[in-house]
Amino acid sequence: MKKIIFAAFVAVWVLSGCGVSVHVEDDSKNQTTLFLVDEEGFSYGDIPYKCDSMSKWSKTASNGAFTFFPPDNCQFDFRGLDGNYDNDPESDEIIRITDDLDKGVEGISYECTSSGTGKTLDDGSFYYDMDDECLFYL
């Protein structure tokens, strides 16, 4: 009889999770998606990027979308692009970071390998050199 009571007690204890409550947060609530577009609103798809919450590099979607979990830092590889030196659409390859309403995201701090540090401008654009890599502090 004692063995049955002991076995029942152990079974209840094991099945109850040993009295430990586990809380799992839904990370999708913090998930944020922004977009890389040019000065005319056309997307920059296939730009390699990696954020703190990611285990490997990914690429922006065909619509320029990239997803992260704030406060991630995200690194982008702009190899193959000409750079933005004067924010001049005639001579620069301007990239803007926008939200889902195509509004530029202003004030994001960033650091590029060759062009230095700064913050995104009011239209979401930023300065970078040809073939630069930039880290954005999102």
From TrEMBL:
Listed name of the protein: Lipoprotein
Organism: hydrothermal vent metagenome
